[in-house]
Each structure stands twice: as structure tokens, then as C-alpha cells.
Design brief:
Number of strands: 0
Mean pLDDT: 91
Oligomer: single chain
Distance between the termini: 65 Å
Number of helices: 12
Strand content: under 5%
């Protein structure tokens, strides 16, 4: 599945379908079944994507899977009012905990997102990329970018909580409740999802900028991996030259 098609399916099943189900199927199906379907459709898509399309186990897929698991379990917690607002913000809470935990462990989560974007294909490329990540300017950008994302998701979670608290006032299990949930979802998918997406894009762009800054001294032109290969070759040549000079000095002594 191409990326544009997958993105379109992500938007359709993650945002559009749940809102349509809440808006138009609450009366024919019943409020509670319609609510469960709307909550589980995005979860089911994430699980299907991980198992049958992506088929990779890494930090990002584990993160998405955990988020889907939490949302799937919470779908069966039938609450309203402040508890529903808290429940609907659980995804942001999980994200902030993961981002913050990665900083405490010294493994900024942004590193995984940048690595997936660059997609190293060989052990040599992977090793070279990890070496670039360890360089001070890039390492600092990874930490600051991850911290920025944690703050953005914390603010998004707080905004989501208060929006739900102010809009979703009906009792659970009623058509009015589902209509209010559909309304707040329509608002948050854009008003909160867009800033989160922009923040993630900005953070990854800053990492890429820091990486390319390290490659400016590499002669010639080429794509990222060609420049990385030339950089590694230069480092190996310098290392070999240094070893030869050290051997020559020892022999002369």
C-alpha cells in the first residue's frame, strides 16, 4: 500500500468513519453499539495495519500498538462527564509518558521517528546513522525535539480534556451523548491533530537539519546516504593514515 493511500485510509478510518457512525447510526443501531463501533474501528485499523501491512516490530509500531490497546480497553469503560473527558485524553497521557520516559532513559523517542524516516537499509548504514545521532549537535536536537513534543502533547491533552468537559454533557448511552462526542471529535481531529502533526514535522526537520550540518564538509554531491558513505570512507582513511603514522614513529624510535 502506497503512503498516500495509507494516509487516506488512516484519515478515513481514524477520524471520518467514527464521526459518521456516531452521527448517523446511533438511532438504528442503538447508542451504545454505535459508540463501541466508532471507538473500535480506529483501533481495529491500527491492529490490522501492524499485523498485515507494516509487519514490523520496532519502537514506533510498539508505541502505536500500545496506544491502540489502551484505547480499545477504555472503549468498554462506560462513563460520562469528567471521567469521559479523562478517558478520551488517555492517548495524550500515554504519549507524554512515553516521550518523557524516553528522555529519562537517555533514548529520546524522536530518534526512532528520524531513523524510520531515513530508513537505513544495511547494518553499515544503521551503524553510521547511530554514530551521527551520537554527535553532540544532533544528540542535543533529539533531546530538545522530544521535550518539545512532550509539551505539545501535554497541552493537546489538556485542551482535549476541557473541550470534552464543556461539550459532552449528556449521559452515556443516549443519542445526545453520541452526537456531542461526534461534535468534539470533529473539532479535536483538526484543532488538536494539526498542531501535533506540525510539531512532529518540525521536530524531525530540525533533526534532519542537524544531520545535514554534519555532512556539509563532505566533498561532492549526492543524497543523504551517499554523503554518509563518503563521510565514513573519509573517517576510515584518516584512521588508517593515523595508524600508519603511529607505526612509523614506533619503528623510528
Amino acid at each position: 500500500m502506497s503512503r498516500p493511500v495509507k494516509l487516506a485510509v488512516d484519515v478515513l478510518l481514524g477520524a471520518v468513519v467514527p464521526i459518521l457512525v456516531l452521527s448517523y447510526l446511533s438511532e438504528p443501531l442503538g447508542a451504545v453499539p454505535a459508540y463501541l463501533i466508532s471507538a473500535l474501528v480506529p483501533v481495529g485499523w491500527v491492529v490490522a495495519d501492524l499485523l498485515f501491512i507494516t509487519k514490523r516490530l520496532n519502537f514506533i509500531t510498539a508505541f502505536l500498538g500500545l496506544n491502540a490497546l489502551v484505547r480499545g480497553l477504555l472503549a468498554f469503560w462506560f462513563v460520562d462527564g469528567a471521567l469521559f473527558a479523562l478517558k478520551d485524553s488517555a492517548g495524550s497521557v500515554v504519549t507524554v509518558l512515553i516521550l518523557g520516559g524516553s528522555l529519562l532513559l537517555g533514548r529520546p523517542a524522536l530518534r526512532a521517528f528520524a531513523e524510520q524516516g531515513l530508513d537505513p537499509r544495511t547494518p553499515e548504514q544503521e551503524s553510521a546513522l547511530h554514530g551521527l545521532f551520537a554527535e553532540r549537535p544532533v544528540a542535543r536536537t533529539l533531546v530538545l525535539g522530544t521535550a518539545m513534543l512532550a509539551l505539545v502533547h501535554a497541552a493537546a491533552g489538556a485542551a482535549n480534556f476541557f473541550l470534552n468537559l464543556s461539550i459532552v454533557t449528556a449521559s452515556f448511552g443516549t443519542d445526545g451523548f453520541n452526537a456531542q462526542v461526534a461534535k468534539v471529535n470533529a473539532i479535536t481531529r483538526l484543532a488538536i491533530g494539526l498542531p501535533e502533526g506540525l510539531a512532529t514535522g518540525l521536530a524531525i526537520w530540525l533533526v534532519f537539519r542537524a544531520l545535514y550540518a554534519l555532512l556539509r564538509g563532505v566533498p561532492g554531491e549526492g543524497d543523504f546516504w551517499e554523503l554518509v558513505g563518503k563521510r565514513e570512507a573519509r573517517r576510515e582513511d584518516r584512521g588508517a593514515s593515523g595508524s600508519q603514522r603511529a607505526s612509523a614513529r614506533r619503528r623510528s624510535e
